[in-house]
Amino acid sequence: RRVHGGIAREGFSIFQTPFAFAMIVLCIEGCHGCGKTELVQEFEKAGYWVLDEAFLDMPEYALHPQSLLMETQWVCSWFTRLLKKEHESRLTGEARNQIFIADRSPYSAVFYASNGHLLEPVIREQIKEVVTAAGIEIYTVYLKVEDDILWYRIQDRLKQEPWREKYNEGSREWMDTTVNFYKSREWDFTVENNHLTIAEVMSQVVTRISATSVRFSSSPLTQKVQLRASACPLSVSTHHHHDECSNPQGSPGKAMMDSC
């Protein structure tokens, strides 16, 4: 009879997976318009593997997709797909310190589901179990933007993509509600995306996580990004640089896809 972390199992423990092969997952979180997609694309451009919401093929049922039951299924599918990918990679010998970037985390369901607060403690324990049992490191990264800058970006994006109106993105009240949710939670990392280029934001994320995870910092991809960042210092206090890298249409604080 073995006891691990207060959980007893008869003759078997789920906490037996060797950690020689492991995954690291960075979940990018934040309000709509904060730059999640651009940041994920920047990571992908740097060579990291990306897990967007499309990696879950969710069926359609009579229940609303944001009902508690359907969001619960989405959360379970998120973890199941992650474990399957880790298992597949481990069998092929490709999972050693493999790093994936995910657009959103299971905690998104807490906000979008009706009575989603019921899911939060469950998700927290599920993440702990995945980390302990499978050696998969999961980090949440909150991409924070000042409210006025965020609202400007949302309005600017709606001009280009008016179909987003159906998701209530044209409502300042909805933006405030969403931002308040993210501000009220504790995330593993919070990185601001106000006046930096998106490449600089990625560099900050990489630097912050490297200081926490040895696996992440030892990745050749991570070392390559850090080397590139050291050759192009952050320009937070260099107003001249922002003038050169700003949006040609004058959008304030617009994150750009180009590096320095």
What topology emerges from the helices and strands here?
Layout lengths: L1 E3 L2 E3 L13 E7 L6 H10 L3 E3 L16 H25 L5 E6 L4 H5 L7 H15 L2 E8 L2 H14 L11 H12 L5 E4 L5 H13 L3 H4 L2 H12 L7 H7 L15
Parallel strand pairs: 3-5, 3-6, 4-5, 6-7
Antiparallel strand pairs: 1-2
Provide structural commentary:
The longest helix is centred in the N-terminal third of the chain and has 25 residues, at 68-92. The chain is 45% helix and 13% strand. It has helices spanning 36-45, 68-92, 108-112, 120-134, 147-160, 172-183, 198-210, 214-217, 220-231, 239-245, and strands at 2-4, 7-9, 23-29, 49-51, 98-103, 137-144, 189-192. The strands form two sheets. A five-stranded parallel beta sheet has the order 4-5-3-6-7, with helices on both faces. It has a two-stranded antiparallel ribbon with strand order 1-2. The termini are far apart. It has 260 residues and is an alpha/beta fold. It is globular, with a radius of gyration of 20 Å. It is built from ten helices and seven strands.
- As a whole number of angstroms, the C-alpha radius of gyration is 20 Å
Q: Which regions have little confidence, pLDDT < 50, spanning 5+ residues?
A: 1-18, 236-260
How much helix, percentage-wise, in residues? 40-55%
Beta-strand percent range: 5-15%
Query: What's the SSE pattern?
Result: EEEHEHEHHEHHEHHHH
Total DSSP E strands? 7
> What's the overall average pLDDT, rounded?
81
Biggest sheet character: 5 strands, parallel
User: Order of strands side by side in the largest beta sheet?
Assistant: 4-5-3-6-7
Q: Termini separation (Å)?
A: 58 Å
